[in-house]
Amino acid sequence: MHARTTVSRRLLQPAALRWQLPGVADLLALLFWLSFALAAFFLRLREPRWGEALGSGARLAASLGVLFLLSGFCRGAPQAGVRTFGQGLRFLALAIGLLAGHHTLGLFAGQLQRSGFELHLLRFDLWLLGAAPSELCARFENPWLTEWLQFWYSTYFYLPFPLAICLLSQGRLRDLQRYLLLLVLACYGVFLGYLLVPSLTPDTLQHSLLEAGRPGIFAWPGELEGVWLAGSFRRLIYAGSCNIWDAFPSGHTTLCLISVLAAWKYERRLLWPIVCVSSQVIVATLYLRYHYLLDLVAALALSLLAFACYEGLHRVLRQAVAEVSGDRGPAPVHGH
User: Fold this and answer.
1) How many distinct structural domains can be found in the chain?
2) Which of 112, 142, 176 is the last residue of a domain?
3) Which residue range is the domain that position 55 belongs to?
4) What is the pTM of this model?
5) How many Å apart are CA 73 and CA 26, to the nearest integer?
6) N or C end of the chain: which has fewer CB within 10 A?
7) What are the mean pLDDT values of the chain's consecutive 10-residue runs (336 residues total)?
């Protein structure tokens, strides 16, 4: 009985229940969605049609706040297993923010005034190549190739997980924090691109024109046909995506390039497997008619920019958070 009481008192001590501050990546993700919800709130005051976007943004910001709060308590626990669980919970929260965020952006972008950016993207392709990349790829169309590339295109979201799991299992939590910030910078940069340059993908644009009774602008021989599951994958992608204004920049290409750069920096044993998968995903974006070439160029520029500045940004923001909170850094058990 005395031993039980001692253990209970020890667990209730402030040091045992110490809450860890959110990481820089957490704060940036939360700030992005709070700003989004605030913008939708002021737009909602002027026009009721913004109500759905406001509700979705507010729910997403609140959900991330709760998850980051729980993660902070877990990461502040004395047990190593609970701390590891807290890091995993944090990574899951950021992943949910990206998946649900794409849907939420679709509600927001759907209310914006469209400006025909697709034609500007297409003009760049015509100027550079003399034809749309999807038209050039049409010369090599084959059901087996379509099936193969559609499968790899559909797996891109899982690319960041092997490195994150590797860093987490090795206890390299500081490297994991930097990696999460790199992912957040790149992915939310893509989200800003969706809002600033809202554009339909070539496939969506062609179908929209044909459904409106207007002639298509791409000289494709017909619909892409696979062997087994390619058609189902394509229908699932379109059915599950609320945001159709997501051509520029290419999110698939950005995530692939960030995964390659991060593997090169943090765990080179994963580099070539990630390169092999990423190269097929990037080829698939053009072959499957999901992107213009300029989308990929913008994704390359965004990835290099995020990779060049994320470590410096992490140091600056981490120091600012520590000064505001009076915390001089994480406990030694949290480092690599």
Assistant:
1) 2
2) 112
3) 18-112
4) 0.82
5) 14
6) N
7) 45 49 74 77 68 71 76 71 75 76 69 71 91 89 91 87 89 86 90 86 85 83 82 71 80 95 95 95 94 95 94 80 57 44
- Looking at the structure, do residues 214 and 312 belong to the same domain, yes or no? yes
Domain contains 41: yes
Token reading at 188: 């939310």
State whether 158 and 250 are in the same domain. Answer: yes
Report if residue 222 sits inside a domain.
yes
C-alpha–C-alpha distance, residues 189 and 230, integer Å: 29
Q: Assess contact for 204 and 244: CB atoms under 8 A.
A: yes
CB 86 within 8 A of CB 170: no
Domain boundary among the residues 112, 129, 161 is at: 112
Q: What is the pLDDT of residues 242-276, one digit of tens each?
A: 667 888 999 999 999 999 999 999 999 999 999 99
Residue type, 104: T
For helices 24-46 and 80-109, what crossing angle results, to 10°?
30
Q: How many residues does the chain have?
A: 336
What is the CB neighbour count within 10 angstroms for residue 92?
A: 12
156 and 218 share one domain = yes
208 by DSSP, 3-state: which? helix
> Do 167 and 311 sit in the same domain of this protein?
yes
3-state secondary structure 110-143: CCCCCCCHHHHHHHHHHHHHCCCHHHHHHHHCCH
Structure tokens at 292: 């213009």
Is residue 1 in some structural domain?
A: no
